[in-house]
């Protein structure tokens, strides 16, 4: 089984800890993971803003860089959705293979590896926000929840209006800052109401926005990517 | 708010005000959240919802792909049943036809059933210019008309008003339009509905001309269908001597039996009911029952432009249920007026720029009035992939290209104000396509991270972000550098194993 | 070119991508939805109709056909109705002797009808799954306006023959050439805060009498 990690540009630059967590987690589960250095961005910011032509070369790059891998694991619902759902609309050639091999992290864990209990230990209260592209484009369903519920020590708190968008939406956050902020404020309020120590998602892009809102509000709730929770072990916690 | 959409600001500018209007936010939140849960329950009741949705989408798609065929079939059937069919290429055409038809009756007053098409063409204003008073009879439309306001929702045009505001409008305005509001009118919805009943009764009983739209037109039989709740539709469709229906050309379904799909999906999607209280169907005229004269005005007004766009075409499947509005987090916070069109919400964001083009600041901003969360697509009973069309229209805004405008193939220039963004997107694509350059940039950012502020009030985008959110700090070391340092001899490879692609 | 030609030629140009030889059938319509949502016997179907009608605030009464005059008479008396409109095919025996029967006639004005207290009609078909009665201007249903203007409507449903399970079944029984009114509960509105309120322009009280063959 040849497995590649597609880290995504946001994780690469701003949240390398998430990538390190994915590597640690997969290796703990006996999966040897490769990191092709030719990878970059999936092209979603360009595509979703209307610059389809700027996204095309990035899709072709993705296809070249990841050709031949059995599985490409992505710790981002949004970027995985870009590859699987939007690449066909770009008309880029030869992307079919890598597209089909692309799995969001929780899909890879639950569907390919067949695990929900990854042996993690995380003695904190956590609330889970299902991000839109993972929820609606990929149909992740209850996979992230099942993984979280199996984490030792973790207490999951229900989030009101969980399935409502946090207001990030890529360039939406700066093109429509007032609506985005209003959505973010409501999301942050619901998160605070859970009294959880951390809010968890499968997308650091949404977490960047949610975390930015929480931080500005002076909130103590910590944004954390699901991979980092799943990578935590009792030994590491000590 | 006065009754025109002309010259309205772009969506973000309008939303900057509306998101701060706490009463509006409260009204919208209350109403949309009430209906969301109910809709979900009504849909849940049908075990074959997915199949109905699929059939509805396919039926509408078939109709659109053969629209000329079905329109001619409809025209023949309506004519054979005693109706008169008129064709209107645009709003002016339609307004002129309707005004003439009303004049021929010698009447100066008409009663109207809620109709999106007549709102779209500004029929009331056109009739007023000709000295004809049009009375809106749907409760919410009445609230909008009495309040000299604009509709902000497809199904519930006065959704932005709460019961207190409605009581105040009734008390102040009803008297100048007809029967005044009862003394001591309270804000109890049942009392408000009763006040509307009394106010409009006079108008219904004396009306000689009714104007309506239609939810569906059956090509095979020439039958029109109006789906409603209050009975004002029945009043306007059956009591007057002359009925004029203004209907968009996309409202067709092929056969009578095909209604079995939409009469199940529409009520559950819009008012979350198993069935709406009243549905009227009529085919031409019936001797001694209902209007003796029936005119059908078939309206294009930009619809064929949308039809010419193979991606955007799906917007014409819309059955105006408004489920996408009710579930939309952007609509809930910005309100319907920010969309500057009778079609607000997600469907408006893809319909308006296709019907009107993307040349004005407002229309060019509409495809961006979405976080692409996809909740609209999920609830749409005819499976319109609204995010797909939004992204498609964004491309038209920033890149221009060819589109059909008023029936003419037209070269569209990229919208103004996107030059900096375009340059940034190109630069980003270049960097992403040259990972070594990107890596250098990352290192530079990492070195300067101590100096990176949590707020960035310098650029427009930085300001927009920082007004409500702290900025993340670049990491001390990118993932890719960490991998290189720790995994040099490990499993990582610099280049893909196919060898076709270098890291540059 | 007139507007008709303009619109039709725009459409034809717009659909350049669609193959024209096969006709509309070239677009496949999957019809995997159900013709009804459960298999029910007559009693179950009638029960469901009654339940769904009541759910939307219609007042449901069930009786044997021989009891119809008693039930209708009581409903009219309870309402204090003096003038009652009924289409010609509604049997005289259904209406009590002490009310004035008003005929459904072509010359009647809306104002004439506004002076009527109640209307009694039959129906063409009733749909159990949605709690809907359909009037199609049949001889015991009359012109559309008579079941609209009076504030009180009594509608008789002959069970089990007039009761179908579902919307698809109802449509296949109905003739689109006839003007129809599908009624699901009394008039209502959701226009104030998207909350349902019963009673606007149509009859505010809807009594549905489900009558079964035979004696009570």
Automatic annotation (TrEMBL), chain A:
Superkingdom of source: Bacteria
InterPro entries: Cys_rich_dom
Protein name: Fe-S oxidoreductase
Ranges for domain Cysteine-rich: 3-83, 126-210
PANTHER family per the UniProt record, alphabetical: LACTATE UTILIZATION PROTEIN A, UNCHARACTERIZED PROTEIN YKGE
Automatic annotation (TrEMBL), chain B:
Boundaries of every LUD domain copy: 71-292
Pfam families: Fer4_8, LUD_dom, LutB_C
Domain of life: Bacteria
Amino-acid biosynthesis among keywords: no
Coiled coil: none
Segments of this protein annotated with the region Disordered: 462-504
Protein known as: Iron-sulfur cluster-binding protein
Species per Swiss-Prot/TrEMBL record: Streptomyces daqingensis
Native organism taxonomy: Bacteria, Bacillati, Actinomycetota, Actinomycetes, Kitasatosporales
Automatic annotation (TrEMBL), chain C:
Family annotation (Pfam families): LUD_dom (PF02589)
Domain called LUD: residue spans: 110-210
Organism superkingdom: Bacteria
InterPro entries: FTHF_cligase-like_sf (IPR024185), LUD_dom (IPR003741), NagB/RpiA_transferase-like (IPR037171)
Annotated protein name in UniProt: LUD domain-containing protein
Organism annotation: Streptomyces daqingensis
């Amino acid at each position: 089984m040849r497995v590649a990690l597609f880290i995504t540009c946001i994780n690469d630059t701003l949240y390398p800890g998430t990538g390190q967590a994915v590597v640690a987690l997969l290796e703990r589960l006996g999966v040897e993971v490769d990191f092709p250095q030719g990878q970059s961005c999936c092209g979603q910011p360009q595509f979703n803003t209307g610059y389809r032509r700027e996204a095309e070369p990035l899709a072709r790059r993705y296809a070249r860089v990841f050709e031949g891998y059995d599985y490409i694991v992505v710790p981002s619902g949004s970027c995985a959705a870009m590859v699987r759902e939007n690449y066909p609309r770009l008309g880029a050639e030869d992307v079919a293979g890598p597209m089909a091999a692309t799995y969001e992290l929780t899909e890879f864990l639950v569907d390919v590896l067949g695990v929900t209990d990854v042996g993690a230990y995380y003695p904190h209260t956590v609330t889970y926000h299902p991000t839109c592209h993972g929820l609606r484009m990929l149909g992740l369903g209850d996979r992230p929840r099942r993984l979280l519920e199996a984490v030792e020590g973790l207490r999951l708190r229900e989030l009101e209006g969980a399935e409502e968008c946090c207001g990030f939406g890529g360039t939406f956050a700066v093109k429509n800052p007032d609506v985005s902020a209003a959505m973010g404020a409501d999301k942050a309020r619901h998160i605070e109401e859970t009294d959880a120590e951390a809010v968890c998602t499968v997308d650091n892009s949404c977490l960047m926005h949610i975390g930015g809102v929480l931080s500005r509000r002076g909130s103590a709730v910590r944004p954390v990517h699901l991979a980092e929770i799943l990578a935590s072990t009792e030994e590491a916690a000590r | 708010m006065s009754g025109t959409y002309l010259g309205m600001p772009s969506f973000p500018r309008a939303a900057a005000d509306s998101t701060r209007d706490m009463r509006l936010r409260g009204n919208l939140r209350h109403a949309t959240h009430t209906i969301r849960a109910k809709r979900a329950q009504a849909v849940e009741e049908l075990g074959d919802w997915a199949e109905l949705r699929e059939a509805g989408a396919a039926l509408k798609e078939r109709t659109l792909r053969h629209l000329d065929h079905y329109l001619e079939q409809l025209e023949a059937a309506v004519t054979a049943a005693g109706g008169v069919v008129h064709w209107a290429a645009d709003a002016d055409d339609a307004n002129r036809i309707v005004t003439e038809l009303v004049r021929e009756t010698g009447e100066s007053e008409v009663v109207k059933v809620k109709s999106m098409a007549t709102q779209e063409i500004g029929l009331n204003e056109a009739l007023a210019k000709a000295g004809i008073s049009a009375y809106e009879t749907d409760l919410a439309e009445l609230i909008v008309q009495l309040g000299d306001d604009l509709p902000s929702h497809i199904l519930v045009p006065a959704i932005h008003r709460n019961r207190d505001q409605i009581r105040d409008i009734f008390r102040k305005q009803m008297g100048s339009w007809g029967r005044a509001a009862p003394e001591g009118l309270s804000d109890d919805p049942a009392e408000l509905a009763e006040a509307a009943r009394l106010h409009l009764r006079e108008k219904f009983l004396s009306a000689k001309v009714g104007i309506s739209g239609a939810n569906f037109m059956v090509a095979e039989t020439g039958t029109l269908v109006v789906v409603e709740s209050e009975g004002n539709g029945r009043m306007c469709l059956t009591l007057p001597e002359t009925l004029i229906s203004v209907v968009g050309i996309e409202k067709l379904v092929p056969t009578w039996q095909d209604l079995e799909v939409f009469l199940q999906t529409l009520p559950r999607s819009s008012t979350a009911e198993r069935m709406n209280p009243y549905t009227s169907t009529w085919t031409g005229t019936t001797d001694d029952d209902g209007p003796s004269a029936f005119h059908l005005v078939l309206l294009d007004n930009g619809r064929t432009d949308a039809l010419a766009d193979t991606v955007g075409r799906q917007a014409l499947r819309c059955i105006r249920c408004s489920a996408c509005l009710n579930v939309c987090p952007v609509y809930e916070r910005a309100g319907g007026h920010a969309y500057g069109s009778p079609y607000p919400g997600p469907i408006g964001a893809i319909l308006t720029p296709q019907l009107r083009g993307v040349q004005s600041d407002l229309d060019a901003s509409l495809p961006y009035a979405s976080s692409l969360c996809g909740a609209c697509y999920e609830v749409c009973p005819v499976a319109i992939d609204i995010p797909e069309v939004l992204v498609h229209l964004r491309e038209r805004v920033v890149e221009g290209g060819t589109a059909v405008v008023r029936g003419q193939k037209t070269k569209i220039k990229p919208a103004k104000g996107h030059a900096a963004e375009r340059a940034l997107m190109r630069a980003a694509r270049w960097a992403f396509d040259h990972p070594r350059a990107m890596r250098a940039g990352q290192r530079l950012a990492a070195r300067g991270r101590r100096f990176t502020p949590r707020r960035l009030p310098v650029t427009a985008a930085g300001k927009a972000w920082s007004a409500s959110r702290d900025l993340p700090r670049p990491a001390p070391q990118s993932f890719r550098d960490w991998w290189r340092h720790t995994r040099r001899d490990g499993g990582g490879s610099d280049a893909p194993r196919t060898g076709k692609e270098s890291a540059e | 070119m007139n507007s008709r030609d303009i619109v039709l030629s725009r459409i034809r140009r717009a659909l350049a991508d669609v193959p024209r030889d096969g006709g509309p059938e070239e677009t496949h319509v999957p019809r995997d939805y159900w013709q009804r949502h459960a298999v029910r016997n007559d009693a179950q179907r009638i029960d469901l109709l009654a339940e769904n009608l009541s759910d939307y605030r219609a007042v449901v009464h069930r009786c044997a056909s021989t009891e119809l005059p008693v039930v209708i008479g009581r409903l009219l008396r309870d309402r204090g109705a003096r003038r009652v409109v009924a289409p010609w095919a509604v049997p005289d025996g259904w209406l009590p002797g002490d009310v004035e029967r008003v005929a459904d006639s072509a010359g009647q004005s809306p104002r004439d009808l506004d002076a009527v207290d109640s209307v009694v009609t039959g129906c063409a078909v009733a749909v159990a799954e949605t709690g809907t009665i359909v009037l199609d201007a049949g001889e015991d249903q009359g012109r559309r306006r008579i079941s609209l203007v009076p504030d009180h409507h009594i509608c008789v449903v002959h069970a089990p023959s007039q009761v179908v399970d579902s919307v698809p079944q109802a449509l296949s029984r109905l003739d689109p050439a006839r003007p129809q009114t599908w009624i699901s509960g009394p008039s209502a509105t959701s226009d104030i805060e998207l909350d349902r309120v019963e009673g606007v322009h149509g009859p505010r009280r809807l009594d549905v009498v489900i009558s079964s063959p035979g004696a009570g």
